[in-house]
Amino acid sequence: MTDLLLVFSTFASEDDAARVVRALVAERLVACGSLLPGARSIYRWKGEVADQREVVALMKTRKQDWPALLSRLHELHPYEVPECIAVRLAAGAPKYLAWLEEALGPEAG
Fold first, then answer.
1. 26 in a domain, yes or no?
2. Is residue 109 part of a domain?
3. How far, in Å, are 6, 11, 25, 39, 73 from residue 57 at the CA level?
């Protein structure tokens, strides 16, 4: 088991998702994010069943960065109650995991 997390969040538009993920990458709270448009979410909200198209963002971060990431995502996200869930990465390609750690570390120079 690693100390890395795969974080899921959904957005109403690809532009919103890109804006938020770009900010989180720039702030080194996530190493990268993949945007998957075309998701269809069916959920209960304020007593009604909603059925909406959304964009799923898959982001990679470290467990130690989770509190700061969660706080910042809530500041940036346009939803009143944004989805933000994380699962631990059990394993990964060693070179990729090393790159994630490097991308999340302090900026060189």
1. yes
2. no
3. 10, 8, 12, 10, 12
Closest CA to 35 of 68, 12, 64: 12
Asked if residue 69 is part of any domain, the answer here is: yes
The CA-CA-CA angle for residues 40, 23, 84, to 5°, reads 40
Residue 96 sits in which domain range? 4-104
Q: Looking at the 3D structure of the chain, how many domains does it have?
A: 1
CATH code for position 11: 3.30.70.120
pLDDT, tens digit only, all 109 positions of the chain: 889 999 999 999 999 999 999 999 999 999 999 999 999 999 999 999 999 999 999 999 999 999 999 999 999 999 999 999 999 999 999 999 999 999 999 875 4
Residue showing tokens 């346009």 = 78
Q: How far apart are CA 10 and CA 16, in angstroms?
A: 10
